[in-house]
Amino acid sequence: MTQLVLTAIGEDREGLVSALSRVVEDQGGNWLDSQFAQLAGTFAGIVLVEIPEERATALEASVAELLAEVGWSIEVTRAPEGGSAHGAIPGEAASPSAEPLRVRLVGQDRPGMVRQISRALAEQGVSIDSFRSWTTDTPEGGGVLFEAEALVRVPESLGEDAVRDALEPLANELMVDLDLEPAEA
């Protein structure tokens, strides 16, 4: 068996996930994990599929044909050997000893916030498994709040306190509220 990662993006249309899952099943594949999101009329998804090695090329062709019919772009890559459906810290196998942590922040919107926070996490060796951000109007009006939530994996050698110590000065500089809490593995 081999694992393929299918990455697709295109104009949001009804029934695309259903059509994609049908093609995977028709080719003898097993849908292991996926994430999809819609933003500003564009729909994007990433799917991890397991399939017999001899069917992988046929699945790639079938998926490409389906998505070309609907005007989507797709990339199919082979998942790294020994990977997992839930990510791993670079340089380590997917490890149950990597501590999952949820990071939330809220503050006045300004350019560069994502870059600064993600850089601080990367400098600590923290891997981002998922990241979502959005803006909302302030309750008082006249401003925009930036909100973000990330699920990260902290190396066992580091721990939550070290991540907090690294992020708190930056949160103060950016004037954002920062919340870190253990997440389910």
Automatic annotation (TrEMBL):
Residues 102-185 form the ACT domain. This is Transcriptional regulator. It comes from Brachybacterium endophyticum. It holds the Pfam family ACT. GO terms for biological process: regulation of DNA-templated transcription. InterPro entries: ACT-like_dom_sf, ACT_dom, GcvR, UPF0237/GcvR_regulator.
